[in-house]
Amino acid sequence: MLQQHNRRIVLASRPVGAPTNESFRLESSVIPVPKEGEVLLKAIYLSLDPYMRGRMSAAESYAEPVALEDVMVGATVCQVEQSNNANFEQGEWVLAYTGWQDYGVSNGEGLVKLGKNPTHPSFALGIMGMPGFTAYMGLLDIGQPKEGDTVVVAAATGPVGATVGQIAKLKGCKVVGIAGGAEKCQYAKDVLGFDACLDHKADDLAQQLAETCRDGIDVYFENVGGKVFDAVMPLLNTGARIPVCGLISQYNATSLPEGPDRMSTLVATLLIKRIKMQGFIIFDDYAHRYDEFAAQMGQWLAEGKIKYKEHLIEGFENTPNAFIGLLEGKNFGKLVIKMNAPQ
Fold first, then answer.
1. Taking the model in full, what pTM does it have?
2. Pair type for strands 174-179 and 196-199
């Protein structure tokens, strides 16, 4: 039976600095009714990702911001609750983009079928979805690692960083992770197989990184920025590659970082060392190669060559606090909210 109401979390105000609980509001609305050719989707799992902080801001970006009073955006794994579309059956699992709410309606465009009984449906939000795809294409297409290269990745136990490091190891590289805290660093070494992992909270991070990367850095997968990049920049080798998929350290910033202007140093480093630094938006730039990624990643997972950690939080009402914690690095693995029980 259907629920009586559709729970939804809307953007109540645009945060200045870090989001707070007052940035969001939990509402109850009428469950939408699908028209001819449409399906009613019930969200079972919701993905929480750092990019959502950018959507809360009105600043110009690669995507439109969430409007005030609108439902927060986000990828979801749903089951078809009701179908008026011959291409979808009731109970079928799909990857969708219904956002922070229980129910959404779709005409079928953009939905990715996951089958009737997927083994790990929530993996479509992580290792087999946007984070895994980001790691795969960013490292292999832009980073172009070669055997013997030194690859450094920050947020090393997050869903992107952990995958970047493991793929780099499969390609014969030395992999150095940077993560927050001893537990995460130990996990990166013991479980993910990184050669080393450094705690970004250490006062002597730059010195530790220089000692660990005595032959310099050939690929730096950038998803954090801030003091981590400051430590990396002097160690970059001639011809180094820097894929850029995010700057989580800056998402809550309200002003430029303190200290000297780093721009001239960065530009000089890019020029003198002939470094390639390229930003990318995964589905905008690589959607046509998703099948290639899915086939290879599926094989690696089946063979046990890639390990994946999911941080699952039960209860839709916990979404705002979980998201705030994500931006503070409190999650350990891919953060997913279990919103509802499956059929």
1. 0.84
2. parallel
CA 76 vs CA 46, 224, 255: distances in Å: 5, 25, 33
Spatial neighbors of 266 by CB under 8 A, at least 6 apart, are: 233
In tens, the pLDDT along 159-192 reads 999 999 999 999 999 999 999 999 999 999 999 9
Tens of pLDDT along 185-239? 999 999 999 999 999 999 999 999 999 999 999 999 998 767 899 999 999 999 9
Q: Provide the CA 212 distance to its chain's centre, in angstroms.
A: 27
> Cα–Cα distances in Å, from 270 out to 141, 233, 255, 276, 281?
19, 10, 25, 7, 21
189 sits in which H/E element: helix 182-190
Cβ(217)–Cβ(196) under 8 Å?
Answer: no
Residues 6+ apart with CB under 8 A from 14: 23, 56, 57, 58, 68
User: Which amino acid type is present at position 161?
Assistant: G
Sign of CA pseudo-dihedral 194, 333, 121, 290: negative
d(CA 10, CA 12): 6
Mapped onto helix, strand or coil, the DSSP state of residue 222 is strand
- CA distance to 5, 72, 174, per residue, from 335 (Å): 25, 16, 27
CA atoms of 69 and 318, how far apart (whole Å): 19
End-to-end CA distance of the chain: 10
User: In the structure encoding, which two tokens stand for residue 318, read together?
Assistant: 């916990």
d(CA 95, CA 73): 14
Q: Which domains does the chain have, with CATH numbers?
A: 5-126+309-338 (3.90.180.10), 130-283 (3.40.50.720)
Contact indicator for 306, 169 with CB cutoff of 8 Å: no
CA pair distance 185, 140, nearest whole angstrom:
24
